[in-house]
């Protein structure tokens, strides 16, 4: 299993903000592809269900890689045709059509989900403190470099020459566990 050394991310929901993380898949932002990919969402403070990340149950098995969305304005990044299967469906406008899951979490709890799971993080309008979260990405043995995608990728790795289909073995994705 490999971790992503340079790009742990966090979505800090500032207290009483209307800012919402858009519905997205984490894998769309990464320079890798494979089935053994997961995100870990680890709260540093108590997180009530009302401000916890929301996930669309079963969306990881839809078999579609959706165009990444800008967090700043919720618009699609512009990519040439064929890199992604389609744009993100309107989950928010069609919430009743999906089984949306969310949880109440305490420090020490974590959510582990497939990087193709569609998810978001709601606003913290009615929550008096920050939603501090540490997120990491983990890669299994089947993960290989993806076709170099134009635009911003995560992690932003300087000087990496991606050879599509080759195993991920760079220092930026350190091996943290191996089953002998």
Descriptive key words:
180 residues, mainly beta, four-stranded antiparallel beta sheet, 10 strands
Structure description:
The chain has strands spanning 2-3, 21-24, 32-33, 37-43, 54-56, 100-101, 111-114, 119-121, 133-139, 144-145. By secondary structure, it is mainly beta. It has a four-stranded antiparallel β-sheet with strand order 1-9-4-7, with no helix packed on it. The chain has a four-stranded antiparallel β-sheet with strand order 2-8-5-6, with no helix packed on it. The N and C termini lie close together (12 Å).
Order of helices and strands: EEEEEEEEEE
Radius of gyration based on Cα positions? 16 Å
**Overall 3D shape:** globular
Extended strand count: 10
Distance between the termini: 12 Å
Describe the secondary-structure layout.
Layout: E1 2-3, E2 21-24, E3 32-33, E4 37-43, E5 54-56, E6 100-101, E7 111-114, E8 119-121, E9 133-139, E10 144-145
Antiparallel strand pairs: 1-9, 2-8, 3-10, 4-7, 4-9, 5-6, 5-8
């Amino acid at each position: 299993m490999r971790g992503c050394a340079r790009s742990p991310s966090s979505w800090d929901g500032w207290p009483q903000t209307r800012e919402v993380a858009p519905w997205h898949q984490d894998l769309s932002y990464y320079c890798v592809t494979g089935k053994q990919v997961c995100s870990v969402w680890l709260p540093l403070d108590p997180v009530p269900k009302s401000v916890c990340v929301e996930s669309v149950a079963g969306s990881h098995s839809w078999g579609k890689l959706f165009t990444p969305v800008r967090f700043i304005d919720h618009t699609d990044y512009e990519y040439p045709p064929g890199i992604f299967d389609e744009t993100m469906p309107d989950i928010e406008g069609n919430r009743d059509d999906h089984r949306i899951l969310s949880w109440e979490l305490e420090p020490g709890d974590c959510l582990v989900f497939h990087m193709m799971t569609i998810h978001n993080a709601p606003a913290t309008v009615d929550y008096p403190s920050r939603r501090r979260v540490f997120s990491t990405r983990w890669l299994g043995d089947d993960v290989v470099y993806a076709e170099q995608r134009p635009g911003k990728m995560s992690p932003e790795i300087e000087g990496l020459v991606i050879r599509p289909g080759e195993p991920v073995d760079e220092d930026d994705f350190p091996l943290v566990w191996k089953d002998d």
